Amino acid sequence: MQYTKCRVLIAVLLACGAWSAAAAERYITVASTTSTENSGLFARLLPAFTEKTDIAVRVVAVGTGQAIKLARNGDTDVLFVHHRASEEKFVAEGFGVQRFDVMYNDFVIIGPGSDPAGVKGMNNATEALRTIAARQAPFASRGDDSGTHKKELALWRDAGVDVGAASGSWYRETGSGMGATLNVASGMGAYVLSDRATWLKFKNKGELAILVEDDSQLVNQYGIILVNPARHPHVKRADGQTFIDWVLSADGQSLINFYTIDGQQAFFANAK
Amino acid sequence: MTDLSSAFSKAIKLLIDLEPALVEIVQLSLSVSLSAVLLASLIGMPLGAVLGLFRFPGRGVVVSILNALMGLPPVVAGLFIYLLLSRAGPLGEYGLLFTPAAMVIAQTLLVLPIVAALTRQTVVDLNDEYAEQLHSLRVGPFAMIATLLWEGRYSLLTAVLAGFGRAIAEVGAVIIVGGNINHVTRVMTTTIALETSKGDLDLALGLGMVLLLIVFTINGVALGAQHLARRGQA
Q1: Residue A195 region by backbone torsions, left for phi larger than 0, else alpha for psi between -120 and 50, else beta
Q2: Most B CBs within 10 Å, among A3, A8, A60, A110, to test the B interface
Q3: Is residue B151 within 8 angstroms of chain A, CB to CB?
Q4: Interatomic CA distance for residues B225 and B219, integer angstroms
Q5: What was the ipTM of the complex prediction?
Q6: Which of A17, A109, A220, B79 has the fewest CB atoms lying closer than 10 Å?
Q7: CA separation for the pair A57, A37 (Å, rounded)
Q8: How many domains does chain B have?
Q9: B100 close contact with A: CB closer than 8 A
Q10: Which CATH superfamily is domain A24-104+221-269 in?
């Protein structure tokens, strides 16, 4: 019986080895956000890149805060997120080589069709938020240190509303991803800030609808950064740089522009 | 209500279509969780037997820790393994993060306490029955562990199935150490979490039903085999 156990153990180790061998295909790991993954953009973009270069791209899609944490620890080769201030800090602290603009889309304020706070059609996001706060209408916040959450907090600050004090009453922090937060908003008839791409792709809309959009404050800029090989020597510098160069190239940029959801352009390429 | 019925029809459609993408995800789920259960059993059963048979200082503490770890939240296990395997962590140089191997390690950590604790109990009960016999035969400690584990094999199957249930059902650990990477570390539970986050609730629930069916089948096969083996012996 001992012998059998040994054999089983060896089989397990071999199986783990086989996985590592399977992992030996040429690939890079990219820390990105749920918005790019859930929108379906990567499913369109990445196969084209892999076909051209034979480099597979493994995406770990988490909130921007967590994505930056993964990249800081050197657990990914490339960082592709949407919060410029955090990205610039990441580079300034020596964790990233250089930051490039990739594309933008916009945030929208979503809420129940019945619009109890009466913000529909406003074209000023901070004013809309101030109105929601004054009426104490339920608002679902990501509360997860993601790019969208940071944007939302900046808007509240500009609106002069202290949401920390209201947390747990009309202001509800889900501590979850965009989709999960939209599910909550849909369930409780709350207002919520979302990036447009995730919203377009989201299937459990229920009574929710876009109420406030087209405000220059709501621009959502994405950036891409190679994790610094000087800090983390195992970073796949050449292949990571190839990916970044391709995303910023005419090929990558036009694929981004051509990606539509329900006939609407989801992202606008703006690499310089 | 409409969501529930459409989830049910989605589940049936998933089973009929049997798309390669789904098959791949199911295969990975099963190989990760079964490997974890195997590893946890290889470590946990001898460990449980030792704790059940021998008295040594600190034994009570170890048993209490094992029992407490049965309630270890998967997300905490995942976080712990992440910190170990991260490039910034002590085992970072092996590059195991975001691989199925990392998922096996995390699930092993979750399953081990269950297998060890249930094995300990089984062995304690059996030892009450066999202690005199084993003593009179002057059986050494290793043979004693082997004998009692063999005699308890039917009860131990329950321990293994309980461990498997915990492994295949958890999402918190594998999503952190695996990263839910498409075609690489995406398993049933992380797919369900992803589809939920996309608001595709009926597909998510449909996948949940498929998962349940798989677990049900595995339990059925294991218990059926046990039944047959018992009858063969009688």
Answers
A1: beta
A2: A60
A3: no
A4: 10
A5: 0.82
A6: A17
A7: 12
A8: 1
A9: yes
A10: Periplasmic binding protein-like II (3.40.190.10)
pLDDT in tens, B50-75: 999 998 999 999 999 999 999 999 99
**How far, rounded to the nearest angstrom, does the alpha carbon of residue A253 sit from its chain's CA centroid?**
18
Write the pLDDT tens digit of every residue in B9-41: 888 888 888 888 899 999 999 999 999 999 999
- Mutate: best of A1, A16, A38, A201, partner B, most B CBs <10 A: A16
**Residue B193 maps to which CATH number?**
1.10.3720.10
Phi, psi (5° rounding) for residue A58? Answer: -100, 120
Query: In this structure, what token pair is assigned to residue B48?
Result: 């449980």
Which pLDDT score is estimated for A1?
Answer: 44
For A264, how many CA atoms within 13 A lie in the half-sphere containing its CB?
11
Tokens standing for A83?
């919060």
Pairing mode, strands A171-173 and A139-141: parallel
CB contact (8 A) between residue B87 and residue A74: yes
- Distance, CA of A84 to CA of A93 (rounded, Å): 14
Q: What is the pLDDT of residue A18?
A: 53
Per the CB < 8 Å rule, is B87 touching A75?
yes
First to last CA, chain A: 66
Are residues B42 and A58, on separate chains, in Cβ contact within 8 Å?
no
| Residues of the domain holding B217 | 2-233
Alpha-carbon gap, residue A216 to A214, rounded angstroms: 6
Residues of chain A positioned with their CB less than 8 A from the CB of B40: none
DSSP per-residue letters across B16-73: HH--HHHHHHHHHHHHHHHHHHHHHHHHHHHHHHHHHH---TTHHHHHHHHHHHTT--
The counts of H helices and E strands in chain A are: 12, 12
Considering CB atoms only, which of A19, A59, A73 is closest to B99? Answer: A19
| pTM of the entire predicted model | 0.87
Residues with pLDDT less than 50, chain A: 1-3, 21, 23
For residue A224, the distance in angstroms to the closest alpha carbon of chain B comes to 19
* Distance, CA of A200 to CA of A257 (rounded, Å): 16
Inter-CA distances, A86 with A79, A82, A123, A192, B86, Å? 11, 9, 27, 22, 21
Asked if domains A24-104+221-269 and A106-218 share a fold, the reply is yes
Does residue B188 sit at the A interface (CB-CB below 8 Å)?
Answer: no
Output the average pLDDT for chain B. Answer: 92
Per-residue CA distances from A190 to A159, A171, A207, B186 (Å) = 19, 9, 10, 31
Minimal C-alpha gap between A85 and chain B (Å):
24
Nearest to A148, CA basis, from A197, A90, A112, A203: A197
